[in-house]
Amino acid sequence: MTVTGRTALISACGALFVGFVLPSWLGIVTVQLALLIAILCDLALAAPVRKLHFTRTGDTTVRLTGEAHTHLTLTNPSRRTLRAQIRDAWPPSSFHPASDVPASRHTVRISAAERRRLTTTLHPTRRGNHHAVRVTVRSYGPLGLAARQGSHHVPWTLRVLPPFTSRKHLPAKLARLRELDGRTSILTRGEGTEFDSLRDYTPGDDTRSIDWRATARRQNLAVRTWRPERDRRILLVLETGRTSAGRVGDIPRLDASMDAALLLGALAARAGDRVDLLAYDRRIRASVQGHTARDLLPALTDALAPLESELVEADARGLAATIHRRTPRRSLIVLFTGLDAAPVEEALLPVLPSLTQRNELIVAAVADARIEEMAAGRHTPQAVYAAAAAEQTRAARHRTADRLRHHGITVIDSTPTHLAPDLADAYLTLKSTGRL
Predict the structure, then answer these.
(1) Is residue 415 situated within a structural domain?
(2) Do residues 133 and 90 lie in contact, with contact meaning Cβ atoms separated by under 8 Å?
(3) Which residues pair with 116 in a beta bridge?
(4) Domains identified in the chain, total number
(5) Interhelix angle for 253-270 vs 170-181, to 10°?
(6) What is the pTM of this model?
(7) Domain that holds residue 396
(8) Rounded distance, CA 263 to CA 252, Å?
């Protein structure tokens, strides 16, 4: 029974009792006076709220769509029993919207000088830093007729990291990397950049790989095998302007780019390359430099977690100047940006010669799978018009990609689910052909 219902029931019973022995007006006054005295006594016996002590422990990081637990340790230093409802308030994005019972609400009964730990389970739905708001306590008296209420600020920050869903592709890409390195029984026939060993010629080998001096000392043709160079420099550049804020399916383009950057970073670190990261629109939004292979992935995820798109036009010239300062020697630059015709032609194309002069450049863009679905629609007049618009959009993206390829740039234009593996394949192809 609620507090309001309990109070009403007591009032009704009192009125019924005194109605037979006292005049009506006197009975009403008597009942109200008795009820007021009961409420004041109940309020006086309620445990004080301000004297409660709170400490917090628990998880400090969690991946998006994961589960985190924060613990509140509540100490009741008073001489009264605490009967309370407690709300551990967090931002709405810290909880799953489908939850029926708010996970932040707790009902407790704590004796004097007792300590109790309360656990709040969080299911974040957005990346970034989630801060605890406040702890609100409503302390009831023994009768439940009145309550004291107050709030405590118990700070805690939970950093929600990118989900990194593309990590499922990492074992397959690492297996191919081991083949390129010659660490498995399958040898790479393409040319790398570092001489590895000699083996017998087999049909299909490139004749340019035949070592004639070694062949002269043997009875069979000898072929040189190569392995990709290590310690190459890779700069992952995320353009965080307004085009990265567009949503493709259920996620922003920036989140899909982050997922691809994490997979490529993990793969390149295992390949022995040095990986840095830069997020830029009109200024540097995030930066990762100089990390070893062991701590690179944690550093990348921590830097990307609070990153959000800015609703401004990206400064291509400023971005090019920053890239030049970050790449004093030949590097692979992976630029995550859009393929919209106007921003590319007006901003990116003029600075391309300076970027490609001494660097290998990959442009990775997030394509919308909905465009392909619309282009295939012909069942209604509205679908025909939508298909025509989709074909026009697709043709414009192809023209933009062709203009970039004309400058010697590798272009990856894939949907969010395919961008990460396609980008990893492009990186491995550059390694196997000796372009990196």
Answers:
(1) yes
(2) yes
(3) 74
(4) 3
(5) 40
(6) 0.79
(7) 167-172+231-433
(8) 18
